């Protein structure tokens, strides 16, 4: 019976011109979105490779120079692009692509795509994740809204009931009839995406496993939508009402709840403004050692402590350049302050994420979006991870430069010039994103919410629909 | 065989079926006549198990419907007033689906055989139902009953809206089924067709079976007279 209903549903769908056109539109949208993304990202990746190589060359070709001048001269940490970012752009557009690494200061990532766009960017981009997250659920609504109501309206349900058809089997047959074309379409799209991604040169390491996980996440999302739409259709008598309610569910899940969640998160756990953030850092910096100011109270304390430690009377007698040593201590103090303030930001971010997870009870969109971005390495966590790695590199770089200055010169010898080969000794910044296992572990709550949605929606459909 | 014992259905204060007693044997064609709201469709819905009786009992081939709703449906075929099938599927595909969900998997030749037996022209077998007239759809309904090998057939106003030719053809098909031993209960307004094809006729009003006749023992004129009298209508004087 399930098989008969399944085959019948497939035949009906395949012969319905509206369905054929809808599928064609979705596939075309996806093809265009993938093509646009591929072109954009190939260009961006080329720019990334070019910039990274050029920047390293500039760093290494500084010639003889005082290490502290080199520290101020600075370098860049570039955020790599990952293959799956082609599928889900995530927050990449807003977070910036590179961080300037310099002495005494932790900089924010800059050169975000959004900053370069005009007001037209408010219309959003046609990206594969837009099609996967918004358009495909809409297609499910159009496929399923009248699955049962049309049987009621046409009168075929009476005939089905007179045949003694068990409701559960009828529902499952119809469920399969909608799930199968969605599954085939999405599977084909992901396979094509996989083939395209695995053939891109110099585009990070592509992993079929990650793509497979992303596919499963979206499949779970679609299963939930199929269940909800069929549930609505089973409870309604008129197709029109079922369509309106199904569209209402789509609007709520895909548009209203995510936007409301964003507003709530912002109002409950606000980030400090840029000015407040900078002012707090400056205030804390003043309370500690200033590497550039030998008359600073803390600098004087450090001086006395070091002299005592080395059992000498003057800084000139020290076996290293105290100016450089003091700057390193100032650097360490600044790094601690930045760590403290960024930790607060991170806490706010985690609180916001927690709120999002709580609101995911209202919409399967949220856990799907978070998991998709995480697997694509385009979420905020990956950005934080990158920014932290860049900061760690900056701290190491400053330690290396101050160390070189301290060890190879004496107190007051600002004329010291490090050898031109010095710069090569500091390895280039290299960032590896979190492993898939770590990403999944970080997102275990999202997986759990998505699983709960699947179970809940299946129960709603099968256990509350005893009668049609 | 269809049996009802004091079958009643009450909605609030309204009695829509009042102590109906029927006994329709194999090969009988029982026509229930009556105006709208007389209780004909309620009777059929009770026999189909779509609604539960307030009191009384009903049986299909000796099986109590309320106790064996699934089993009794295996013996039943039902053709509503306006038989709607899946418009994007052909006659063969519709028959295949409805037989399939009833647990009766048939091959193409068998399906075509039943459609042919039901009088559908061969050229229509693989046409989509959306192109079918009501008469053609009713024939698919009969084919469904044949395919199911149903021993009981319930019909709710099946000839309403059919042209005389189609209505006559439908009547002949029912005769054929009756000859095969199928017990048929048909709710209708059509006195003429009832007299033509029925073995027994009952007249219902306000949920009660007011009169019963053996079709061969009453003329069409007397049947009409009895019907109008039961309905308390005035007879037209020509």
TrEMBL record, chain A:
Pfam families: DUF3526
InterPro entries, alphabetized: DUF3526
Transmembrane segments: 21-37, 130-149, 170-196, 208-232, 239-258
Domain of life assignment: Bacteria
Name the UniProt record assigns to this protein: DUF3526 domain-containing protein
UniProtKB keywords: Membrane, Transmembrane, Transmembrane helix
TrEMBL record, chain B:
Pfam families with a match to the protein in the record: ABC_tran
One function term, GO molecular function aspect: ATP binding
InterPro entries named in the record: AAA+_ATPase (IPR003593), ABC_transporter-like_ATP-bd (IPR003439), ABC_transporter-like_CS (IPR017871), ABC_Transporter_VariousFunc (IPR051782), P-loop_NTPase (IPR027417)
SUPFAM superfamilies hit by this protein: P-loop containing nucleoside triphosphate hydrolases
UniProt keyword terms in alphabetical order: ATP-binding, Nucleotide-binding, Transport
Residues covered by the ABC transporter domain: 2-231
PANTHER family linked to this entry: ABC TRANSPORTER ATP-BINDING PROTEIN ALBC-RELATED (PTHR42939:SF1)
Protein name: ABC transporter ATP-binding protein
Lineage, highest ranks first: Bacteria, Pseudomonadati, Bacteroidota, Flavobacteriia, Flavobacteriales
């Amino acid at each position: 019976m399930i098989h008969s209903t399944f085959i019948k549903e497939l035949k009906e769908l395949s012969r319905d011109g509206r369905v054929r056109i809808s599928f064609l539109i979705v596939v075309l949208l996806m093809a265009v979105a993938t093509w646009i993304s591929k072109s954009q990202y190939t260009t961006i990746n080329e720019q990334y490779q070019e910039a990274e190589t050029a920047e390293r060359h500039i760093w290494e070709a500084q010639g003889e120079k005082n290490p502290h001048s080199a520290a101020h001269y600075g370098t860049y940490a570039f955020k790599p692009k990952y293959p799956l970012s082609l599928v889900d752009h995530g927050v990449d557009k807003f977070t910036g692509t590179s961080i300037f690494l310099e002495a005494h200061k932790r900089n924010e990532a800059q050169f975000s795509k959004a900053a370069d766009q005009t007001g037209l960017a408010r219309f959003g981009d046609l990206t594969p994740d837009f099609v996967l997250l918004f358009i495909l659920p809409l297609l499910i609504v159009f496929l399923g809204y009248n699955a049962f109501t049309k049987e009621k309206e046409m009168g075929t349900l009476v005939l089905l009931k007179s045949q003694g058809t068990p409701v559960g089997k009828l529902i499952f047959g119809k469920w399969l009839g909608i799930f199968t074309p969605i599954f085939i379409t999405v599977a084909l799209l992901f396979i094509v995406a996989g083939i395209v991604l695995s053939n891109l040169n110099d585009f990070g390491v592509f992993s079929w496993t990650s793509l497979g996980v992303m596919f499963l996440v979206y499949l779970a999302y679609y299963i939930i939508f199929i269940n909800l739409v069929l549930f609505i259709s089973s409870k309604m008598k008129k197709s029109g009402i079922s369509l309106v309610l199904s569209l209402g569910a789509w609007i709520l899940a895909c548009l209203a709840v995510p936007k409301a969640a964003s507003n709530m998160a912002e109002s409950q756990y606000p980030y400090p403004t840029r000015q407040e953030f900078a002012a707090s850092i400056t205030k804390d910096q003043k309370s500690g050692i200033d590497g550039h100011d030998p008359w600073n109270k803390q600098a004087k304390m450090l001086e006395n402590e070091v002299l005592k430690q080395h059992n000498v009377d003057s800084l000139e007698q020290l076996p290293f350049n105290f100016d450089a040593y003091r700057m390193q201590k100032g650097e360490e103090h600044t790094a601690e302050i930045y760590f403290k303030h960024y930790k607060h930001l991170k806490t706010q971010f985690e609180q916001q994420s927690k709120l999002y997870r709580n609101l995911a009870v209202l919409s399967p969109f949220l856990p799907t979006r978070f998991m998709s971005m995480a697997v694509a390495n385009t979420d905020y966590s990956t950005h934080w991870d990158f920014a932290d790695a860049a900061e760690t590199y900056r701290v190491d770089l400053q330690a290396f430069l101050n160390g070189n200055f301290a060890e190879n010169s004496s107190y007051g010898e600002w004329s010291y010039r490090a050898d031109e080969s010095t710069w090569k000794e500091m390895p280039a910044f290299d960032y590896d994103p979190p492993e898939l296992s770590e990403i999944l572990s970080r997102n275990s709550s999202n997986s759990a919410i998505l699983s709960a949605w699947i179970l809940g929606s299946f129960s709603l459909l099968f256990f509350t629909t005893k009668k049609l | 065989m269809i049996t009802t014992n004091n079958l009643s259905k009450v909605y609030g204060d309204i009695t829509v079926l009042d102590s109906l007693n029927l006994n329709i044997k194999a090969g009988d064609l029982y026509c229930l006549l009556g105006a709208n709201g007389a209780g004909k469709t309620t009777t059929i819905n009770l026999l189909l198990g779509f609604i539960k009786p307030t009191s009384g009992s009903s049986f299909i081939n000796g099986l109590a419907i309320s106790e064996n709703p699934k089993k009794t449906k295996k013996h039943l075929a039902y053709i509503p007033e306006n038989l709607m099938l899946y418009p994007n599927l052909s006659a063969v595909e519709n028959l295949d689906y409805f037989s399939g969900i009833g647990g009766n998997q048939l091959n193409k030749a068998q399906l075509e055989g039943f459609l042919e037996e039901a009088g559908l022209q061969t050229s229509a077998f693989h046409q989509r139902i959306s192109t079918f007239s009501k008469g053609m759809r009713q024939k698919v309904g009969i084919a469904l009953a044949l395919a199911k090998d149903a021993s009981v057939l319930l019909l709710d106003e099946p000839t309403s809206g059919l042209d005389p030719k189609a209505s006559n053809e439908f009547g002949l098909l029912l005769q054929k089924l009756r000859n095969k031993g199928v017990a048929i209960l048909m709710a209708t307004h059509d006195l003429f067709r009832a007299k033509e094809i029925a073995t027994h006729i009952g007249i219902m009003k306000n949920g009660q079976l007011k009169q019963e006749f053996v079709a061969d023992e009453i003329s069409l004129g007397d049947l009409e007279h009895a019907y109008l009298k039961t309905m308390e209508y005035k007879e037209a004087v020509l």
